[in-house]
Amino acid sequence: MAAIPSDADPGDQPADHRELNRDLRIFDTDPLAGAGLPLWLPAGTVIRDELERLARDIARADGCVEVRTPVLGKRALYERSGHWAKFSDDMFPPMPVGGDELVLRPANCPHHALIFAADRHSWRELPVRLHEVGAMFRAERSGVVSGLARVRQINLDDTHVFCRPDQLADEVAVALRSALEAQRILGLSVDHVRLSRRGPGPGFLGSEAWWQQAEESLRQAAAAVDLDAFGLELVDGPGEAAFYGPKLDLQVRDGRGHDETIATVQVDGNQPERFDLTYDAADGSRRRVVMVHRGTVGSMERVTAAVLERHRGRLPLWLAPVQVSVLPVAADHDVAARRAVDALVAAGLRARLVVGGSIGTRIRQCRTTRDALVAVVGDAEAAAGVLQVNDFGDGARVELALADLVALAAAAHAARRPVDWP
Ligand SMILES: [Zn+2]
User: What is the domain count for the chain?
Assistant: First the structure.
């Protein structure tokens, strides 16, 4: 095995995802479609599908069930939830339809609250955890939207947990651990975890006692997760809470060095009041649930921008739009190359045949689009029944039989880890 230069080194200065997008063709924007409304191109759609699959795998492992809810609802729904009073300036204006006023939703929580409220729940069946990768909307002005980092439609990996107060710290700990695990799989370095607390002044709903207890549950959860083991600090963030409750925010640095929240776990005592969300307690009384809003992967737009910048466009194999490009040196090698592509695709991998132009030009093209692996078939390889495989991520170059390449790449894809070269 010979080493070739690797271009996986993220370097000190992450690139801007809008610049990387010129080579990678992840998304497009069109003035006719509108600013802040990116169109996901085929390569971007692959990334987004993989991110959604990761979000669902984690949610399922944590005992969540999948739901699907509409992207718009009656204005009255958001008056009930409190979003209308707080956020109507950031919402798209209502659309009059048949005597109702419909608005594009500013958050997924009210729909999930209605799903919980639709059934009666015993204390024995809590927590109920509802998961959806759902779209929500923000009426950002044209001047402030940018690439995938700031958009008008946000597709969020979103879970709402409805639990008893005595379950709160455990639920927050599970959510925090999963959010940290998601960011580890994505290769994103979380800078610190912020305990976003209530600040002075109005604008935070709920009693003093409720806030103290909720903030204490978050502290307990952070202690249970042992942030030290992740090399992370819990940083105090007074005034950074949501209006309805405190939260734990996973903070990362973006390509321009800005601190931003990539995933979050929030406690909410307000929606349970507003939607009268209760359970039947052991003593027969009706009690109020606590609601936890949790995101692990984050918003599809923001996390795509972050992984592109973090990896300088060279995404890990499981996330790469093209996992294996197969290049026949000459037309004589087309049959062997086609056979390789067919076997890789049959194993569930994203593989393509690249013909036309010199072999050097094609390898450069594959490097530009950051294909994870490039397999070359020439006379020597065809005679020996092997492919010469280049992994530009770790600089490996190895000769492998087709069956071995399929097995190694499929195992790496399934485990969401780098290929374990022999
Ligand atoms: Zn929510």
Answer: 2
Q: How far is the CA of 267 from the centre of ligand 1 (A)?
A: 9
For the stretch 113-167, pLDDT in tens is: 999 999 999 999 999 999 999 999 999 988 888 899 889 999 999 999 999 999 9
- State the helix-helix crossing angle for 300-310 and 17-24, rounded to 10 degrees: 80
In this structure, the answer to whether residues 149 and 216 fall within a common structural domain is: yes
Cβ atoms 150, 133 nearer than 8 A? no
What is the phi/psi pair of residue 240, to 5°? -95, 0
> What CATH number did the domain enclosing 332 receive?
3.40.50.800
Say how many Å lie between the first and final Cα of the chain, rounded. 9
- Centroid of ligand 1 to alpha carbon of 108 (angstroms): 6
> Same domain for 265 and 410?
no
The CA-atom distances, in angstroms, between 416 and each of 51, 127, 288, 410 are 11, 29, 40, 10
Tell how far the Cα of 160 is from the centroid of ligand 1, in angstroms: 6
Rounded to two decimals, the pTM is: 0.93
